[in-house]
Design a protein that fits this description.
single chain; 320 residues; alpha/beta; OB fold (Dihydrolipoamide Acetyltransferase, E2P); Rossmann fold; Ribonucleotide Reductase Protein R1, domain 1; 3 domains; 5-stranded mixed β-barrel; two-stranded antiparallel sheet; 13 strands; 27% helix; globular
Length: 320
């Protein structure tokens, strides 16, 4: 497995502590322990700090310079052939938000779950638009294999068209229980309802985003892409809003690691005859045996095996 981008190590004695709460290009917005916020620049040409990083920084006129990125507990990112896209660091969980309509991509969901498993970050699957009875019913059924794997599932019906987004009280209580005291990255394709969810939980989000945009009007910076919002005044519960994506590369994952990052495969991969089984053609493969069992109760569905095969081929092509 390729290593994640590594933080820098330089440190000056008079640096101050801070938390990265927004990222835009090479620059970041840092929040001090006292709650003040300022733009900070990387020392050198390349920025490695991401939202959620604890950093040490030095003041430079009205802005600052990042001197060190503290050691991370984790980093959630995706990687394709051309580049690596880091979402956030030091997360407690990733909320993968999808909508019942239009139909969500099982491939995107699987890729996000694999990335979370690889980074040892707890994933939660949330399905929006539960008020659309028939589409939601179909989508909820489609997610049955993931419930069987033990992933936490949540139904939501966020209403974005009203003056303020709403969600029913039961769903809201369940959501807040999951988020309480944690740093949560909200991930999902465009149109799933991420912005509505953020505006629901953080009513001042638009104001904070406008303040960041105003700070960037000097023309020296690019538009912010990922932002951390505090859900409570004690700054213990955080929601991190990320841009929507259409592709989710996993080129940082070795093909032979895939099965162990997919719970339904992992359970049967232990029964394989060969230790280096690819689960594609080998005799005595526990995964293939389960897939071919024909039982309605088979824990590896045909769609999941197809996704595994496609991912294995995709990741193998990048290495050989």
């Amino acid at each position: 497995m390729s290593k994640a981008p590594r933080p820098g190590a330089a440190l000056a004695s008079n640096t101050q502590a801070g938390l990265v709460v927004a990222g835009f290009g090479r620059h970041v917005l840092v929040e001090t322990d006292a709650g003040a916020r300022l733009i900070c620049h990387p020392r050198g040409k390349k920025s490695q700090a991401v939202v959620g990083d604890r950093v040490r920084w030095l003041p430079t006129e009205d802005e600052g310079t990042i001197e060190k990125i503290e050691e991370r507990s984790n980093l959630f990112y995706r990687q394709d052939e051309m580049r690596t896209k880091s979402f956030a660091a030091n997360l407690d969980q990733v909320l993968i938000l999808m909508a019942a309509e239009p139909e969500f991509s099982e491939s995107q969901l699987t890729r996000a779950l694999i990335a979370a498993e690889a980074a040892r970050i707890t994933p939660i699957i949330a399905l929006n638009k539960s008020d659309l009875v028939e589409p939601f019913g179909r989508a909820w059924t489609k997610l049955a294999p993931y419930r069987a794997m033990g992933y936490h599932m949540l139904a939501l019906a966020i209403k974005p068209k009203s003056v303020a987004p709403t969600v029913n009280d039961i769903q809201s209580a369940a959501l807040m229980t999951l988020l309480q005291g944690k740093k949560t990255l909200v991930l999902g394709p465009s149109g799933a309802g991420k912005s509505s969810l953020t505006n629901l939980l953080v009513p001042q989000a638009k104001v904070l985003t406008a303040e960041i945009s105003q700070a960037l009007n000097s023309g020296k910076h690019t538009t912010t892409s990922t932002t951390l919002y505090w859900v409570n005044e004690t700054r213990q519960t955080a929601l991190i809003d990320s841009p929507g994506f259409q592709e989710f590369g996993l080129h940082h994952i070795e093909p032979m690691q895939l099965a162990n990052l997919m719970p339904d495969f992992k359970a049967h991969a232990q029964n394989c005859k060969f230790y280096n089984c690819t689960h594609l053609h080998e005799p005595g493969c526990g995964v293939i045996l389960e897939v071919n069992s024909g039982a309605a109760t088979s824990s590896i569905k045909a769609s999941r095996y197809r996704l595994y095969s496609e991912l294995f081929a995709e990741l193998s092509q990048t290495r050989y």
